[in-house]
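We were asked to recover a plausible sequence for a given structure. The inputs and outputs are reproduced exactly as logged, with field labels preserved.

PROBLEM: sequence recovery
POSITIONS: 189
GIVEN STRUCTURE:
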């Protein structure tokens, strides 16, 4: 448990350093907040692919913890992985990189596969460069379609809310490697 706490602490510190808001000065943030009541909400729709690779020489997701019963569980209950997955325009691994998905997921279901997933989608190109969306929720990974809630964001996505409809594009059931399609609707200012 101490190892997991240390990993989570280190992870949160890394994410805070990697995600930079477009406004850093507290005075500028206060000015932004004062103008907020006069600003109309925006809706942004995004589409990209998330590459979760557990195999090979350079995996983008790794196991950081497991319970004593995980290997006996049909749902891998108690397994925790941490990830830094590429986000691309298309499903091919060579497709243009648009950002990174950084976070963790743990197998939280004993009766069916249900992941508790916490992640930041950090955008590195285009009009959302330097901004991020934060997700926290249940990912029923074996369902054809699932919905993940947006609970916040940074930069362009400050005070964001919304959701993603998620669909597995490709899955290697032997290695656990997956390419997942994301359709995101983000409401922000």
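RECOVERED SEQUENCE:
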């Amino acid at each position: 448990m101490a190892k997991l706490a240390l990993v989570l602490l280190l992870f949160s510190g890394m994410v805070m350093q990697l995600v930079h808001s477009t406004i850093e000065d507290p005075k500028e943030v206060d000015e932004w907040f004062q103008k907020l009541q006069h600003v109309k909400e925006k809706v942004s729709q995004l589409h990209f692919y998330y590459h979760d690779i557990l195999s090979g020489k350079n995996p983008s997701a790794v196991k950081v913890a497991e319970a004593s019963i995980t290997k006996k569980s049909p749902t891998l209950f108690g397994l925790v992985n941490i990830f830094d997955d590429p986000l691309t325009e298309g499903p091919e691994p060579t497709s243009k990189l648009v950002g990174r998905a950084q976070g963790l997921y743990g197998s939280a279901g004993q009766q069916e596969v249900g992941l508790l997933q916490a992640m930041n989608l950090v955008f590195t190109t285009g009009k959302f460069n330097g901004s991020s969306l934060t997700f926290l929720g249940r990912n029923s990974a074996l369902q054809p379609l699932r919905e993940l809630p947006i609970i916040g964001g940074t930069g362009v996505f400050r005070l964001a809310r919304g959701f993603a409809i998620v669909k597995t594009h490709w899955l290697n059931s032997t290695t656990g490697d997956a390419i997942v399609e994301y359709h995101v609707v983000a409401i922000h200012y």
